[in-house]
Amino acid sequence: MVFSAEGPSVRELAVQALSSVERGYDLLAPKFDHTPFRTPDGILRATADALRPLGLFERGLDVCCGTGAGLGTLEELCVAPVTGVDFSAGMLAQARRAHPEAECVRADVRALPFAGGFDLAVSFGALGHFLPAERPALFAGVHRALRPGGLFAFPVGAPQPVMSGSYWALLGFDLVMRARNAVWRPPFVMYYRTCGLRPVSDDLRTAGFTVSTLPLAALGHRRGSPRYGLVLARKAAAS
């Protein structure tokens, strides 16, 4: 991971890591866009390019919108003003400044306060903040927020090869976080290896979605397979 000169200091990161998820992101918010944690523009562009041929979207929802990187993607795709939801007031403040036309709502996404109003929902890099037992509530809320026929989309990376440095870096990060959460309160939930494609797809189907994946070939290949794919979870159309 590479931090720019405008990013947080080591001390600031340490304070964030010893906070709750909400407080940690409130602290990080002013410098978040200068960290590697922000979704790269290439992934945002590839997602927008993949979704654009799938139809005309009216209203869009960014689930765990953070500072609003995904709101820009939605604004490209949707004809009506878009909505972002997050539980960090600090992150939402940054999102409002970056996207003044968007509606930014503070809420726990495990209990989304929406019903049937959106054609498209997206999420970028947020699933690691939810324990597997929490995903059903998250996905049920997204399903409820969509209109019949609505689409929930989010990019996922292909599994890292076991012999790669990235594999061991992510495994090490998760082990450190588990050790931290075993001895320190409040917990900071962020795991990279708890949201594999198969269990996530199973949870989406349980929530009522039909699930497919679309390769994001523009982001490159590894050993002949795309490095990233786009999960497409479709709510059934009205009968």
Automatic annotation (TrEMBL):
Gene3D superfamilies: Vaccinia Virus protein VP39. One of its GO terms (biological process) is methylation. Keywords: Methyltransferase, Transferase. Transmembrane segments: none annotated. InterPro entries: Methyltransf_25, Methyltransf_Superfamily, SAM-dependent_MTases_sf. Residues 61-150 form the Methyltransferase domain. One of its GO terms (molecular function) is methyltransferase activity. The keyword Iron-sulfur does not apply. PANTHER family: METHYLTRANSFERASE (PTHR42912), N6-ADENOSINE-METHYLTRANSFERASE TMT1A (PTHR42912:SF93). This is Class I SAM-dependent methyltransferase. The lineage of its organism: Bacteria, Bacillati, Actinomycetota, Actinomycetes, Streptosporangiales.
